[in-house]
Design brief:
Elements lengths: L16 H8 L2 H14 L2 H23 L5 H25 L8 H12 L8
Length: 123
């Protein structure tokens, strides 16, 4: 500790400027950065991203299995299972050097945009 004049209820924290800037970014900014990086990735890296997406979805399903069952959890598990299926199909297509299908989440966004008459966000 640098400062010994702290009260018992106070703590001193040192944070780098990079961490502060990263904390200021909202979800939309991070999504924009992620999309930019995905466009720059080669075929092998895109396949790895799909594998990671499948692993993430499976871990989310495991977390949802814990605790008391609810209608919300069952709906989320069903959606995650569909997303895993689409991610696996997309991974196979990338390996075969085809243009991948949209993910389940992207399809839901498109449907919602059509139903509610909102324009899709294009990046």
């Amino acid at each position: 500790m640098k400062n010994n004049n702290l009260k018992l209820t106070e703590i001193e924290v040192s944070i780098s400027s990079e961490e502060i800037e990263a904390a200021k970014k909202d979800k939309a900014q991070w999504d924009k950065i992620n999309k930019k990086e995905l466009k720059q990735d080669d075929k092998k890296e895109k396949v790895e991203h799909e594998k990671d997406a499948v692993k993430d979805d499976k871990s989310k399903i495991k977390k949802l299995d814990k605790g008391a069952p609810s209608e919300k959890k069952s709906i989320e598990k069903k959606d995650l299972k569909k997303d895993v299926k689409f991610d696996k199909d997309s991974e196979k297509e990338m390996k075969a050097d085809k243009k991948p299908k949209k993910s389940y989440a992207q399809m839901l966004t498109d449907i919602a945009a059509e139903r509610y008459g909102k324009k899709k966000e294009v990046n």
